[in-house]
Amino acid sequence: YEHVVIWLDYFNKTLPRNKGRRLPKEKCIFDPSLKELIDASNAAGLTPNETEEKVRFPKRPYVRSGYIVLPKTEKKSVILEKISQKLVSKREKQSKK
């Protein structure tokens, strides 16, 4: 596999881990949007090859979610950490305005 799929639900602070969240709550944000995820991945130096907006995350088939596909340059956990830092810092800047 040379690509990695990053779902919005990995960064959703309102979800428990058994519903798809992959990081600690302090590294997540409330209800991330696909645009935020794309912006954060670009800011982290990763360019998405493909995005999908109208799909459903397997652990939550009743809610529409979204994902991006990135080239696999390093481990998925490292990629998630990078994107998470950008998402959280961007949200903090928005909330201070």
Tell me about this structure.
- With 97 residues, this protein is an alpha+beta fold.
- The protein has helices at 34-43, 76-96; strands spanning 3-7, 50-56, 64-71.
- The chain has a three-stranded antiparallel β-sheet, covered by helices on one side.
- Strand 2 (50-56) and strand 3 (64-71) form a beta hairpin.
- Helix 1 crosses helix 2 (76-96).
- The longest helix has 21 residues, at 76-96.
- The protein is globular.
Mean pLDDT: 92
Structural class: alpha+beta
Distance between the termini: 41 Å
Q: Which percent bin holds the helix content?
A: 25-40%
* Poorly predicted spans: none
For the largest sheet, list the strands in their spatial order.
1-3-2
Helical run tally: 2
Radius of gyration: 13 Å
Listing every helix as H and every strand as E from the N terminus to the C terminus, the arrangement reads EHEEH
Main sheet, how many strands, which sense, barrel?
Answer: 3 strands, antiparallel
The count of β-strands is 3
Oligomer class: single chain
